[in-house]
Amino acid sequence: MELTAEHKKKIKKIVAKADKQTMTVKTVRRTLEKSLGLEKDALKPLKEELTAYVTLLIDPPTPAKEKKPPAKKAKPESTEDARIVQLKKMGQAVRAGPTLFKGLKDLDADAKAAELKERLVAKGYEISGEAPTAKEIKAAKRQRDQMEEDDNGMDLSNIITGKRRRADVTYAAAPAPLEENNVDGVDEDSEAEFV
Questions:
Q1: Is residue 66 a part of any domain in this protein?
Q2: What is the extent of the structural domain holding 136?
Q3: Cβ-count burial of 116 within 10 angstroms (0-12 exposed, 13-18 middle, 19+ buried)?
């Protein structure tokens, strides 16, 4: 036995009239049995099919939309000059700090690029063109890392080398123990003198 088109039509009417808060599949099945003039539990073999159909009526599936892969957020185009961007990358790679960029806000793009390049070259980094290439940035970073590895960021001129000298200290001899004089002959009222 299966759910026929007539069964489905009657189930739709029953579900439409029923209170969705108190309705169960069992009450729908019993109501359908009464409307078809069948005995109690005559449609019990169709329980699973009936449950699926009632669920479909109550909560119809939404049409599946084609899932598009999430679009990658495009980085906003930088309005900054490409030379300046490369010089900033080099400054960050060598951890030059904020003093590298100090006082550059008011300059135009050409002057800013020239000043950044001049400051980086003054720090000992090589830049062959107007802006550093990726290879020059990597080389500068390696140079910075090598310098840190060599001295771990310490000023080696402050290190004292040689043996440590101890101060020449002479110690005084310990005082001799006190002797008790006339312990037997001392009154309690008078004070005893110790030499």
A1: no
A2: 82-153
A3: buried
